[in-house]
Amino acid sequence: MIKVKLLHPDARLPVVTYAGSDLGYDLFAIEDTVLEPGVPVKVRTGIAIEGPPGCGFVLGDRSSMAARGITYAGGRIDAGYRGEILVCLVNVNQPRYSLKTEYTDAGVLRAASLEVSDASLSIRKGDKIAQMSPFQAMTHYELIQVEELASSEREGKGFGSSGR
Ligand SMILES: O=c1ccn([C@H]2C[C@H](O)[C@@H](COP(=O)(O)OP(=O)(O)OP(=O)(O)O)O2)c(=O)[nH]1
Question: Does the keyword Nuclease apply (predicted)?
């Protein structure tokens, strides 16, 4: 069971459409927010949660939002965290710049101005803004320093070693 405390009158319980199949519960915004390009914004959900012992949560993109250029930063909700869940969103769209010029009949530049498109995006109160997947904390393992690690097929190969 996952316990949810509503901290705000506009807060809603997270929802899942296909329980047991979907990987995450959708979270809702409790406030209108404008996302300027490239600026991370913490959006309030108005909820606090408590999962089964040792169960934290990983927040992630909703794919429909990712397709609009809204992505997620942060996203680890520790098992013992009882504060409000904040959803840190980033608008990765970039404005388009265009240079407008005016010339006289004689071909002399008379005026020039730079136009910038509006790449900001809006989140409205009640929008689904992220999904939250239960995740079992495994950080009770003791870390010990060693001189050697067990060999493996991959060994130290990484960063694209298997090809593109
Ligand atoms: O997207 C997020 C990420 C984190 N948190 C909350 C829950 C999490 O348990 C707590 C701390 O997050 P994290 O450990 O990732 O942040 P930190 O910057 O390392 O902070 P701390 O020093 O408090 O661990 O903040 C959120 O509400 N939303």
Answer: no
Q: Could you give the dihedral angle defined by the CA atoms of residues 108, 113, 114 and 119, in that order, rounded to the nearest 10 degrees?
A: -140
Ligand 1 lined by 60 (C-beta under 6 Å): no
Q: Alpha-carbon distance 92 to 69, whole Å?
A: 5
Q: What b-and-e string marks burial along 41-57, b requiring 16 or more CB atoms within 10 Å of the CB?
A: bebbbbbbbebeeeebb
Complex-level ipTM: 0.95
SS3 sequence, 8-61? CCCCCCCECCCCCCCCCEEEECCCCEEECECCCEEEECCEEEECCCCEEEEEEC
Task: Find out whether the beta carbon of 90 lies less than 6 Å from any atom of ligand 1.
Answer: no
> Whole-prediction pTM value?
0.89
Domains of the chain (ranges, CATH numbers): 3-92+120-136 (2.70.40.10)
Distance 57 CA to ligand 1 centre (A): 11
* Helix H or strand E segment including 66: helix 63-66
Q: In angstroms, rounded to a whole number, what is the distance separating the alpha carbons of residues 3 and 47?
A: 10
